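ENTRY TYPE: paired fold submission
RECORD: A
CONTENT: sequence, then structure tokens
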Amino acid sequence: MLLTALTGASCSQDETPAGDGRTGVMAMTISTSRAETNGEYDPLQYQKVYIYNSEGGLLRKYAAKDDIPERLELLSGTYRVAVEAGEEVPADFSKRFYKGEETFTVKPGETTHAEVVCKIANTVVEVKFDASIVENLDPGYFVWIAGTDKFDEAEAESGAVPALKFTDEGTGYYTLPAGTTSLAWMFRGTHTSGKEVEMENTLTEVKAGGKYVFTFRYSPDLRGYIDALLIRVDTETEDKDDEIIFSPDPALLTEGFDNDEVQKYTSGEKKYRIMAFAELKKFTVSVGDDSYDLLTGTHEGISFTPTDKYNTELTLSDAFFAGLAGGDHAVTIHVEDANGGSNEISTTYRLQGLVPVTEKSYDLWANTVTLQVVDFTRSANVTFGLCGSDGQWKYLTGTSQGDDFISATFARQWQESTNANGHTVYTREAGTGVVATYGYEYKVTIDGTEKSGSFTAGAAQTIPNADMSGWSMTSGFAFPNAEGGAFWSSGNNTMTKTLCTSTDVKFGKAAPAAKLTSTNMLVLAAGNLFTGTFAYKSFTGTVQFGQPYDFTVRPSALKVKYHAKVGTVDKVRTSGDICPYIKKGDPDMARIFVAIVDWNAPHQVVSAMTTTKGAWDPEKGIDNVSEGKILGYGSLWITQSTEGDDMQDAELDIVWYDHETRPSGGGYSLVISCACNAYGDYFTGCSTNVMYVDDFEWVY
């Protein structure tokens, strides 16, 4: 036992202290609970002593062993002595830390002997390597043990967590951070057969002052296993044993080629070696959508043969690759063994020939498709052909990309014109490029040899609640949104509650439509439906036009069903911002328009009794609002009532100011507006107009 005395060695309880009869002498012996020493480190060389009175006040502090006096005369009373010995570091193979305290009473004229036993405050870890480890693993194995919930080698190496690397048997001392009650460990080594062994686990409910002995061994009865036998030595609990068994994962190795490189395949065999220490329970080869189970049958071009107890050779031959088209193919080999181990390897094989068109080949916003062939000589004369949506073949000469691929891109062509307001707009030239939902044929001629294929260019995008089937209540009013949705809005408010309502008059119960009804409220309240939000206060309505919409496919038109009743203008604003386009007695117009925009915020229109701020029209140019650009639009002016009771189909052809820019992700990109009165934002129009709308959909 390591000892140190606060008083000189000659002090004893029989000595009579100097003083006035109200004092006594404290003689103190300090020891550690275990005589753990490596012959070089003595924790009692690093000790601190604190003496407190009965009220907890600090009377004395000694920060070094040499500072402690030989005699300590104190007034009679009760004292608490707290001692720290050693050094408190995160983790170390020799430095350790002890703490202890006791309470004593000093009597007048007497010497009181105070014995303080310091218990270790570290979590102690001992690592042992069984002889079977030395016999079955190559030199260089090691185990990391760290004070953390999950092992991270980078954290251990950097010292971010208390951690020690045991390359040999030994004992380590840990000061675990507050709240940490786990030891995470990772063992790494190489089996004599060449298989890398790496495994990790976590021990929970770890306590300071406890000792944990890990013994690692190679299990001869379960060949290929490593056992970690854990013995917990805890001074406050009974000893416990816990055994953790784990197995190396199978290894997958290529034979004669570098798996990190693309394999240009023309003919021959490709071989792999599978090394496993337990019986294989799953063994598959996958390419594209096809997966072959090698344990349940034979497959053309795939064979495997055990070469010894641990190794199996897999061969892929010409018959396997013959079923693959030109281009790059990821061939994945996956294995699982009886011990729960698994592994897989994926090799990219490149084959010559026509590359099939996939979703990666086309861009349905840019309306382009790239056709490709693989030619290892890079010198073939290649001509590509594409049969467009107009049924006509178009041809392009292939261009080498410098990486075995020869390609040509078929793009949309544009026709330029001028709209009614004098702005340049563009429309797609029929039959050029590719558009969503259409089927296409393509072919390639390589040095006189023709190959062909076909594809359908992607699916259509949908518009939320486009069929007006979902309705929900917001602030006491019905809106055409499913519960929780907020895509559509209208001008419904406390004064006018029927500007937009659900109806089944036109379609029957199973297919409701939106009914827009204008109202005379001293001023005109136009029936309306739009994408955005609306707020009403003090006879002032504020519309925020626009909703985010992730365009992945460029539409050519917006299709909608409608039925309209339009009359003569009977309500106009007579002062302030008077409508400059129509006047009382003129034929009124309803309007539906769509605008594809690239805005950083919704566009605001505020209509009050005598003022209108922010009125806009997508036909008036790309930059006629401040929030960003109007990329394209389609518009339907309804100048007369619909005949009969049936809904009419209409297609709003979209023309483009900018046919290159793609709406920014996360911004406001779509406006759809339906209004019984085209100039309702000026409180001007026919107060008896009614319009039904339903079934919005994109046309490509």
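RECORD: B
CONTENT: sequence, then structure tokens
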Amino acid sequence: MLNSDSLAQLKALKSDIQTQQQTKLKQGTVRGSQGRFGFVVTDDGESFFLAPDEMAKVFPGDVIHFSETTDDKDKVQAVPEQLISTTFKQCTGRFQRRGKAQFVQPDTHGSTHWLYIPPDACEGIEDNDWVKCDVTRHPFSNGKPQGKIVEKIGKLSDSGFERQYAIEKFQLSHEWPETTFSELALLAEENIEAMSAGREDLTSLPYVTIDSEHTRDMDDALFAKVTDDGWLLSVAIADPSSWFGMNTNLDQEAARRCNSLYFPGRSLPMLPQELSNSLCSLLEAKNRLALVCDIQLDKNGGVTGFEFKEAVVRSQGKLNYNQVTQFIDGDQSVVDPSLVDHLTQLHLATQALNKYRNEHNLIMEDRADYYLTVGDNGKLQTIYKAERNSAQKLVEEAMLIANICCARHLQTLGTGIFVQHPGFRTERIGDIKTIIEQQGIEFDGDFTTAEGYKAFIKAVEAKDTELPIKTILSRFLTRSEFSQEAGPHTGMGFDCYTTFTSPIRKYNDLVVHRIIKAHLNEQKAPEVDDAMIDRLQQGLISGRQAVNLAENWLKLQFLENLPQKEFAGKIVQTNIGGCTVQLVDFGIEGFVDLRKSKKRLNFDKAYLRHSNDDTSYQLNQEVTVSIKNLDIQARKLDLTFV
């Protein structure tokens, strides 16, 4: 029998062995894939392969300790040794029965697990119901995760299901807390006169709103007049910050929502309709509180000065895009005669802005818009394609220049929320150099800087080539992002940029309003910190993903009911496995898998092109496709070239 000293020595030896083993382990975060395998990525970006059997022990997003091993081909693989933390505690998914057992298939990218649901935890749930599920057992110990259904969301056939499912999946706030009702009850049209005290009265100026015909939350109105040097362009923006303060219940709910989301058939507004569609909306013939940016333009469209001020405005015309486009095309009868001269100057001023931007900045390629109409059953009835018209471009120029002026103003103040765009992704620098050399593009500058990028794109535009070089380069760009610091928006060629023109719809714009108004009134401005920037960025991403999910699901159901067998398409993305093709009449995207082509195709990662001696597939290429497989439940469309 061992004495106490021997036991202590054994315990110390065991501890030393465990410590040595721990020091050999690495820490990383699990990433899923479209297959059964996965990866674990360390904090310094090193990636290790997780074989299917090992991936079965973990969820995407798990933080683990892992050891390294090699397979029979001497390739390094990761082996999970310890689960440190998991964020996979709840999910949405589809309920399915398999024999006598029942499962939920999580609708989570990179997850291949099915959660076993005990029989007593799925009462009233039917096959193909979509549900919200808590994870009650992690698979780390035995690879057999288990869950508990906490809410039935509905079936795909239900009216409005796609919107409701997206709300649940992305955990969007969608019901107004009762605490907001008492605050709303104090807000009324009659308050505007008293709230106008101290503001500049601009109600006599012929501001007009230009929006879609059915828009109700109108947050911008425009006015322009000719001056000795060019034009005065006045951009009036609705001022919801005057109706509720920071940290009120209304403000807290707006912050949770981050943005108004325009789901097909029914929006999810950031502010209650009493504000967004009424008290804040710049309605025709109604006095409204506004934050106004007056911009002095020279005859070439350059900015010579600008001023921000709090004002009261009164829209003298609710115009729609089609109406103003007709006016620009020469039909003056479509607007009230009193607006003709002012609308003419607005058109001339924004034309000058566009010309200036074309010469000094960068203009992105126009894309068609797709308008979806939803029937009484909550499903798509039509998809209408429309090219951007002259009126939309007019409004765009006015909004862009107002936002640029706002960014420069915030830069002077030393605080704000800015929108930066860093430019090309680092891992694509070599491919870009290859394109420059092989295509003979006359550029020897540094395209990784904002000014260099602008000069580079101008050089590309000047080069006559059959290849869609500019489109290819656009696929190498990073995404824009919010920042506390003023910095270049490389993609648009601006030295700095922000947005303040949609405070009814975007919380970041609302915060910018408060910063500007605090400066105007010599008050303390709201604090912008990393936590706020992160929340705004995540809110923007989640909102876009939610709307895209609902739209795509509805579009695929619409496509399934079409008698059409072949479709005109355009290649909009490529990767090593194939091409993403957009059906040009409907804006629906599907994937053409080229990995099993009869004759092998080679993928050129610099030019994003698949080719062999007989054929090639390139970005922007017009193609004809047919449906190979349409899986509505999985929201997956596989196409094949005709």
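NOTES ON RECORD B: Residues 17-21 have pLDDT under 50 and may be disordered. DSSP finds 15 helices and 31 strands in the chain.
STATUS: closed
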